[in-house]
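User: I would dearly like some help making sense of a protein record. I have put the entry right below:
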Amino acid sequence: MEKPKKIKTKDKILFEAIKLYNEQGIQNVTSRHIASKMGISHGNLDYHYNTKEDIILAIYDKMRSEMTESYGSRKEGASAIEQFHILIQQLEEFQYKYRFFNLDVLEVTRSFPSISELIQETFIKRKKTTIQLFQEFISSGFMVEMEESELERLEHIIRMIITFWLSQREVMSSYKFSEMGSMVKSIWTIINPHLTDLGIEEYEKAIKTHGYTFTSK
């Protein structure tokens, strides 16, 4: 019987860092806290990740890799609307897996310029993929014709919802839209007025098949 692969110390550090950052926020966790929680010396941790920026950069690389897979994969036979629906479901799930990053994104971009640069690169790539999906909406008869600038503005609004979803939940706590699936519903609220009758039909089909919350299959 093949033995399970041993988890490397570098990966264990990232796992513990994500857990502590999620629980306490980036500002309240030092590398010494992470090392202490793991039961290793600070020198051992420092050998793998010399600074907090190194840890957060490694986590962001992990995040980008995971979401690149989601953006790049497509369910066989899925329409553009079904594909987009599955994608934003995964994005909402992703928010909670790495909630510290979304809650502290302003702090991260201000404190770590190298990570801020990568975030901007990622936004450009995600923007391109999303607009391509919207263009497929139009070519499939699911969405009314829109100018490129209108599609870019629509994508921008959706990107703001995704990027600041958890932050607005904490700041605007008097609002009721906090259950899982609310981000997905909010995004569709923005898109639906632009859909044709055929697009609404395809949207309703996607909801019937997948619901609003992500479940791995």
About this structure: The mean pLDDT is 91. The radius of gyration is 20 Å. The domain at 59-210 is CATH 1.10.357.10 (Tetracycline Repressor; domain 2).
